[in-house]
Amino acid sequence: MASALEELQKDLEEVKELMGKTTRKRVRDSLTAEKAKIETEIKNKTQQSQKKPEGDNGKPAALVAPMTTGYTVKICNYGWDQSDKFVKIYVTLTGVHQVPPENVQVHFTERSFDLLVKNLNGKNHSMIVNNLLKPISVEGSSKKVKTDTVLIMCRKKAENTRWEYLTQVEKDCKEKEKPSYDAETDPSEGLMNVLKKIYEDGDDDMKRTINKAWVESREKQAKGDTEF
Q: Which tens digits make up the pLDDT trace of 134-175?
């Protein structure tokens, strides 16, 4: 019969496998939290199994409560740039260089990565980035811990290509914000579309104002046509 520690190891492997397959941010956040929880349990059980059953005087040694970490906070602030070979993400975390190296973990897939920093100032810190703009090499990607900073190095699969954005979502959002220009379209058509939207979204006063302006504009135009 498998021990509790062996069962936890199996649970951890299965969670890691699921993290590599999922593309849904909410699911991945839940799996990341569960992964941190299981790893903490494994660490605690390992420490307990290594403790001596008795003290130097032959009496049972006092049990030491395992150190537990607090809740997991989401990392929202970061910077990034790129070279011909790498996309580099800079995550600032005060004191991160002072935690044990094994507490800083980065998991890569071809189109995502997640960072987990465990037990930093009593908290876990998590950052998950899905839907990267272009594929990366899992084997060629890595992380470096510097003073108050974690540097995540995503190796580009296609070298010498420029990334305009870090993720596909950012690209889609920016492109939606861009006004569309068509050389063959009447310039006044764009203005009419804007006025139409304002009219549809406006209240009664706004609609009356637009109707009045429209009637006056048509009257002036008709008057001008009769003068020639």
A: 999 999 999 999 999 999 999 999 999 999 999 999 999 888
What pLDDT digit, counting tens, does each position of 28-56 carry?
Answer: 777 788 888 888 888 887 877 766 555 44
Task: Give me the torsion for CA of 175, 179, 185, 187, rounded to 10°.
Answer: -170
Q: Output the DSSP codes for 7-21.
A: HHHHHHHHHHHHHHH
Strand order in the sheet with 79-82: 79-82, 86-92, 149-156, 136-146
Token representation of residue 46: 């390992």
Domain range list for the chain: 4-52+68-169
Closest CA to 116 of 5, 169, 40: 40
Helices (H) and strands (E) in the chain, counts: 5, 8
Torsion of CA 85, 87, 93, 98, to 10 degrees: -20
Q: Phi/psi of residue 211, each to 5°?
A: -60, -45
Q: Which residues contact 92 (CB under 8 A, 6 or more apart)?
A: 77, 78, 148, 149
What is the spatial order of strands in the sheet that 112-120 belongs to? 72-74, 123-129, 112-120, 104-109
In one letter, which amino acid is 194? V
CATH architecture entry for 4-52+68-169? Sandwich (2.60)
Which residue has tokens 């050389």?
A: 183
> Is this model's pTM higher than 0.70 or not?
no
